[in-house]
Amino acid sequence: MISVEWQIEPAVTALRELQSRLRDLSPAWRSIITHLRRATMEQFATQGGRSGQQWQPLTLPYSKQKARRFPGQPILRASDALFRSLVEQTPDSVVEIAPQALTYGTRRFYGRFHQRGDRPQPKRQFLAIVEQDRTQIKKLVRSHLENQAVLSGFERV
Questions:
Q1: Interatomic CA distance for residues 68 and 133, integer angstroms
Q2: Residues of 126-139 as b/e, b for ≥16 C-beta within 10 angstroms?
Q3: What is the pTM of this model?
Q4: Cα distance between residue 109 and residue 92, in whole Å
Q5: Which of 39, 45, 135, 157 is 20 to 30 Å from 76 by CA-CA measure?
């Protein structure tokens, strides 16, 4: 007689451990912040072109004024405070990582007027999630989940 015996308890234990590990996505969020900062740098560098919505040019009067006060600075980068708050860690940066949530943005009050467009400011979206970002974020989350499964006793496939 041939028999196969299988113990379910080790699998149940591993699943419980995995469930516990998946309650905290903080490691994935940290990777995603790095990606979002790079994407935001690109959005500024292309003046919106990365998202397919090129930023509207400055008005002629403001363009002249800005050229005198901030020579060579591109759109939305007069003092660079908004840009730095999004691509570096500054007092104006908003990066809040919780086990099940991630918040990324800026405390610079004028950022919302540019992001959404509000008279007299035209919309110049500096935070833009495109399909390429969605794909990368899914990969980062999947990698985190796979790592947590391995740490819980599952084998990599």
A1: 37
A2: bbbeeeebeebbee
A3: 0.87
A4: 10
A5: 135
